[in-house]
């Protein structure tokens, strides 16, 4: 009944639109050279499908007034540059669209190409990425069903990417790798996990801290990153913030079951500087009041975040300074069953009271300078902080608490980066840079091993400290890469990336190489090789162990000298774009992992990358290996003529090798993943637009290790069946998401009503297994959310 009421409400709201007649808006922006960042003067820009257009001035600026509202695209041409075609964007009656168009210099060798690379609207912003990369826009994070402006939730529509086990989280598994292997980068610096409800050592969480109002067109990588990207084993998000409007003040508010948003942007000095600010406060309690529990019936969640970007341009347009920032506060509270008599023996969550705050923030300054006609420089300095804490109490039948777990993971960084571009000619260019972090940290974890959850006295005497460390250190990265147009249609990119951790003096020198051939008829073939390493979570080096030496207890840091886990990526890619904007793509990849922490003990199956978060809490050595291989395929219709379509499929195999050479399936070897994503728009005579979309996900079930029933019965706890690690898997994962929205435009306002529905069919999926000590069985843990309707109203004014 509650879902029916939501549908009625949505229909009523949509019927309240006011007629729109011949409403127009302005498209403005700046055109620059992709390498030198110099303004491109005299470039011609036109609105696709119309005769309207403009010419860029001496500062590279352009303005096209009186453009009819709706979904629009632009094309830009200039002598000596490749043609640029934008993705379609939404132009409404209130907000101007401000574009930054970076043109790629032409080598003069592909004049006969019928479909240029610029017409691939999913092309990465970083044009040095030839394989396993694509860009995305905030409009894409909105229109893909159940993505709710979250890059992680959006990415599961892409080939080679699947969602983590828990539907309430945005962790992603890329090509059979742990979610730990994802890099997050903002404005040229690496940042800690930018998600609310983040977990230690994880790359995901509940929902992104990033505001959709600030994100510009950004990149997502699933492997084979160019030399400028380090500290990533599997993939990367490279997020960019947009500038506010320098001419007009604009406001946006959004109200929904996830939160309240308010953003404002406008000129600080008209034509020279701007501001853009967004604040969001969660309203997840509304879902609970509707009887919809994202995590569980006895779990409360709340969050808030703030993002901003201030931009200042010099008079000559050759220098830009920005001040950017984002911060997020979140907390989860897992509560026990209120009535002690209703608590079930053997189910620990019935007895536990757990609190999990997670906070992060970053404030930085960027300086972009066009040094001359051939070179540019970008400098960034930022202060970054993250704090993830955990406390857990268990209650007895008298509700007396006993603190059995305390965790603290706190880091503060001063991050600096520099990136230099130099263009030797239209065929050869250099990009080089460095990233240095100064890190202060405090880590602590203490637990009391349990023997029975029903009584606080059923714990082993005393607590065990497994992580303990504080201090400071530095990390350093440096890179250089050369791009060469070798021959007609043939481009090569070669470089090196270097990483160094001052804490234990470990380093990694990583070669990167890629080559691409683009034929005159829109086919392209690419190959890439790269060695990729990742810093372990700093807390991994502060695992402590107590040993008895000559009758004395000695505490040692057993993992202090661990090396970086590494992965060799080999990727072969083929793409074809038709004249009607269909893209066919297939990629084969092979990954060889080494230096993964494993326990140095015969028979041990511990391999760090089998975990979605955390870090080694046992003595380990960097001698583990792994092998991932697979094929990603996709058929995509870019958004045009009122619809889009994306069909993706992946088959893969992921194995790992332990200290004694034994080989097992990895925890994320789910065998296959598929997704079908589509959307269609219908425009009414009054100018309003109704949009409908869907997404179907069908993946292999998660892996788990069967139970040794005999040993488990003896020890009254789950004991894994030896030699059968991750040999069993749950039923296949299936989910359908849906979205409907209604856009309307008035003279002074524009609005969007939307309803996203995660798991439309309320299909029950299994997220994990849990041990029941009463019947000595592993029982499936079902997804707790089921159907999740996300209703929102957005107003521009």
UniProtKB/TrEMBL annotation:
Cellular component, GO, one term: cell outer membrane
A matching Pfam family: CarbopepD_reg_2
InterPro entries (alphabetical): Beta-barrel_TonB_sf (IPR036942), CarboxyPept-like_regulatory (IPR008969), Plug_dom_sf (IPR037066)
SUPFAM superfamilies cross-referenced by the UniProt entry: Carboxypeptidase regulatory domain-like, Porins
Signal peptide: 1-20
Gene3D superfamilies: Carboxypeptidase-like, regulatory domain, TonB-dependent receptor, beta-barrel domain, TonB-dependent receptor, plug domain
Subcellular location: Cell outer membrane
Main location (coarse class): membrane
Keyword Signal listed: yes
Keyword entries, A-Z: Cell outer membrane, Membrane, Signal
Protein name, as recorded: Prevent-host-death protein
Organism: Emticicia aquatilis
């Amino acid at each position: 009944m509650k879902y029916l009421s939501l549908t009625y409400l949505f229909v009523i709201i949509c019927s309240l639109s006011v007629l729109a007649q011949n409403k127009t808006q302005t498209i403005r922006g700046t055109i620059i050279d992709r390498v030198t960042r110099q303004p491109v003067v005299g470039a011609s820009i036109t609105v696709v499908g119309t005769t309207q257009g403009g010419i860029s001035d001496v500062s590279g600026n352009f303005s096209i007034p009186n453009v009819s509202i709706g979904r629009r695209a632009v094309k830009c041409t200039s002598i000596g540059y490749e043609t640029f075609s934008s993705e379609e964007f939404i132009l409404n009656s209130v907000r101007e669209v401000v574009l930054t168009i970076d043109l790629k210099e032409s080598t003069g060798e592909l004049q006969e190409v019928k479909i240029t690379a610029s017409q691939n609207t999913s092309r990465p912003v970083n044009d040095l990425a030839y394989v396993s990369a694509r860009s995305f826009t905030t409009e894409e994070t909105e229109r893909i069903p159940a993505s709710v402006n979250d890059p992680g939730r959006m990415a599961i529509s892409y080939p080679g990417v699947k969602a983590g086990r828990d539907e309430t989280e945005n962790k992603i598994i890329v090509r059979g790798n742990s979610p730990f292997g994802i890099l997050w980068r903002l404005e040229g610096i690496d940042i800690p996990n930018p998600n609310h409800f983040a977990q230690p050592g994880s790359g995901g969480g509940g929902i992104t801290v990033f505001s959709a109002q600030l994100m510009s067109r950004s990149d997502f990588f699933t492997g084979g990153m160019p030399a400028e990207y380090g500290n990533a084993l599997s993939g990367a998000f490279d997020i960019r913030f947009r500038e506010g409007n320098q001419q007009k003040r604009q406001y946006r508010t959004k109200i929904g079951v996830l939160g309240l948003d308010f953003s404002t942007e406008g000129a600080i000095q008209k034509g020279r500087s701007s501001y853009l600010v967004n604040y969001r406060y969660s309203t997840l309690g509304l879902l609970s009041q509707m009887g919809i529990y994202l995590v569980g019936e006895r779990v409360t969640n709340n969050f808030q975040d703030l993002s901003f970007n201030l931009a200042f341009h010099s008079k000559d347009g050759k220098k830009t300074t920005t001040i950017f920032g984002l911060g997020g506060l979140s907390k989860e509270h897992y509560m026990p069953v209120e009535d002690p008599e209703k608590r079930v023996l053997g189910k620990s969550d019935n007895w536990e009271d757990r609190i999990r705050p997670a906070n992060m923030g970053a404030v930085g300054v960027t300086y972009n300078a066009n040094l001359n006609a051939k070179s540019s420089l970008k400098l960034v300095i930022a202060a970054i902080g993250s704090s993830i804490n955990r406390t857990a109490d268990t209650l007895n039948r008298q509700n007396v608490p006993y603190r059995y777990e305390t965790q603290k993971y706190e880091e503060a960084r001063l991050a600096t980066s520099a990136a230099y571009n130099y263009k030797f000619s239209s065929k050869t260019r250099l990009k080089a840079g460095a990233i240095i972090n100064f890190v202060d940290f405090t880590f602590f974890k203490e637990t009391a091993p349990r023997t029975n959850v029903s009584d606080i006295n059923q714990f082993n005497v005393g607590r065990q400290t497994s992580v303990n460390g504080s201090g400071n250190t530095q990390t350093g990265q440096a890179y250089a890469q050369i791009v060469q147009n070798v021959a007609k249609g043939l481009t090569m990119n070669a470089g090196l990336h270097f990483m160094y951790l001052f804490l234990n003096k470990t380093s990694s020198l990583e070669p990167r190489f890629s080559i691409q051939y683009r034929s005159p008829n829109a086919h392209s073939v690419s190959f890439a090789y790269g060695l990729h390493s990742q810093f372990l979570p700093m807390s991994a080096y502060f695992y402590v162990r107590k040993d008895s030496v000559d009758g004395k207890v000695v505490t040692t840091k057993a993992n202090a000298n661990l090396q970086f886990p590494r992965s060799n990526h080999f990727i072969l890619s083929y793409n074809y774009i038709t004249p009607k904007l269909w893209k066919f793509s297939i990629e084969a990849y092979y990954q060889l992992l080494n230096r993964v922490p494993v326990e140095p003990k015969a028979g041990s199956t511990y391999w760090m990358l089998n975990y979605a978060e955390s870090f080694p809490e046992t003595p380990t050595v960097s001698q583990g290996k792994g092998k991932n291989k697979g094929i990603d395929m996709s058929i995509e219709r870019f958004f045009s003529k009122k619809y889009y379509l994306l069909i993706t499929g992946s088959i893969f195999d992921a194995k790992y090798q332990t200290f004694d050479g034994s080989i097992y399936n990895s925890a994320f070897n789910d065998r296959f993943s598929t997704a079908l994503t589509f959307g269609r728009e219908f425009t009414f005579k009054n100018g309003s637009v109704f949009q409908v979309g869907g997404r179907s996900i069908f993946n292999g079930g998660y892996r788990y290790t069967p139970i040794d029933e005999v040993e488990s019965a003896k020890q009254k706890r789950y004991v894994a069946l030896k030699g059968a690690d991750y040999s069993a898997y749950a039923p296949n994962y299936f989910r359908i998401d849906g979205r409907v929205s209604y856009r309307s435009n008035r003279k002074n306002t524009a609005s969007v009503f939307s309803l996203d529905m995660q798991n439309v069919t309320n299909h029950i999926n299994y997220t994990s297994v849990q041990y029941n000590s009463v019947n000595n069985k592993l029982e499936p843990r079902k997804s707790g959310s089921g159907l999740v309707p996300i209703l929102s109203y957005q107003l521009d004014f």
